Amino acid sequence: MKISILTPTYNRATLLNNLYQSLIENSKYGGKIEWLIMDDGSTDYTEKVVEGFIKEGKIEIKYEQQENQGKMVAINKLVEKATGDLIIDCDSDDYFTKEAFEIIQKEYNKYKQEKDIYGLCFLKYDQHNQNMGEQFKKEKTTMFDLYFKEGETGEKAIAFYREIRKQYCHKLENNERFVTEARMYHKMDEAYQMICINEPIMICEYKEDGYTQNIAKQFKENPYGYYEYFKEILAKDFKGVKFSKRLYVVKHYILFSYLTKQYKSKSIKNVGNKVLYWLLFVPGILMSKKNFKI
C-alpha cells in the first residue's frame, strides 16, 4: 500500500519539521509514502528547509511552487499528481501520530474491497491529546449525516481512495481563494459513503495565522463559495437534521446572501427551513450589517 500526503504551505518553514519527522516515524510500518508539498508563494526559507529533507533521502518528497493562489488551488494541483492508494490532506501545522500509518493500513486492508466507500475517516487530536470532537456513532455514514444528523463536532482526518478522490476538486467561485472542504465532501456524499474509525491519526496545532483562527476574515473574503455551499445544503433532504443545525445553516445562508447581495429563497426545498428563513431574514440582515460592514 502507498499513501500520498498532500501539504499546501505558505511561510511555515519553522513548522514543517514536525510533519516530516512524523512521516519518518511512520515509515517503519513498511508501506510506501510520498509527501507532495505545494509551496504557495512563500517568502521565508521554506524551499531551503524542504531541500534539506529531500537530501536526507529518508522518504519520497515532491516539492513544487506556485504563485500565491491559496490552499484550495494548491490541493487541487497536488491531487492530480498523487499516486498513492490513499490520499490524505495534512496541513503544515499538523502531524501524524506515531502509530497512524499502522492503523491506516489495518483499516484499509479491512475495507478496501467495498465499492461504495470514498475513504476512511479518523479522529484528530489536539496537542494536549484531546479529541477534537466526539466519538463516531456509526461505522458507515456520509460527511453530511455525520455533522448534521449525528451531532459530530470538530475536525477529522480522511484517507481518501485515490480513484474516487481524483474525480473531485475544490470548486472556487468568483476568483476566490478559499472554500470549505465540506462543499466537496457533500458532493462525494451523493455517490459514496465513508467508514468511520474511532482512532486518532493526526495531531493539530492551530496557529494565529491559520484558516480556522481567522474564520471571520475567510467569510468576508470568500463569500461566494460559502453562499453556494449553504445554498447546496438547503437543497438537501433535511429529514433527521437537528434543529440547531437547521438554524445554523439558515443563519449563515442569510449572512452570505447579504455579503454577495444574492437574496434567493427558491433553492430552499424544506418548508420548515423556508419558514425559518423568512422569520430570521430581517434580524439576520441587521446582524450581518453590524458584524460585516461592506
Descriptive report:
By secondary structure, this protein is α/β, with parallel strands linked by helices. The protein has two domains: 2-213, Spore Coat Polysaccharide Biosynthesis Protein SpsA, Chain A (Alpha-Beta Complex), CATH 3.90.550; 222-291, no CATH class. It is 41% helix and 20% strand. It contains eleven helices and nine strands. Strands 1, 2, 3, 4, 5, 6, 7, 8 and 9 form a nine-stranded mixed β-sheet that branches. Helix 1 (16-26) links the parallel strand 1 and strand 2 (32-39). The chain is globular, with a radius of gyration of 20 Å.
Top-tier CATH class of the largest domain: Alpha Beta
Helix-strand pattern = EHEHEHEEHEEHEHHEHHHH
Name of the CATH architecture of the largest domain? Alpha-Beta Complex
What separation lies between the terminal Cα atoms?
50 Å
Count every beta strand, where a strand is a DSSP E run of 2 or more residues.
9
Describe the sheet with the most strands: 9 strands, mixed
Can you count the helices? 11
| Protein structure class | alpha/beta
Count of individual domains: 2
Can you identify the CATH superfamily of the largest domain?
Spore Coat Polysaccharide Biosynthesis Protein SpsA, Chain A
Q: What is the radius of gyration?
A: 20 Å
The share of residues in extended strands comes to: 15-25%
Which segments are poorly predicted (pLDDT under 50) over 5 or more consecutive residues? none
* Mean pLDDT across residues: 94
Q: In CATH terms, what is the fold-level topology of the largest domain?
A: Spore Coat Polysaccharide Biosynthesis Protein SpsA, Chain A
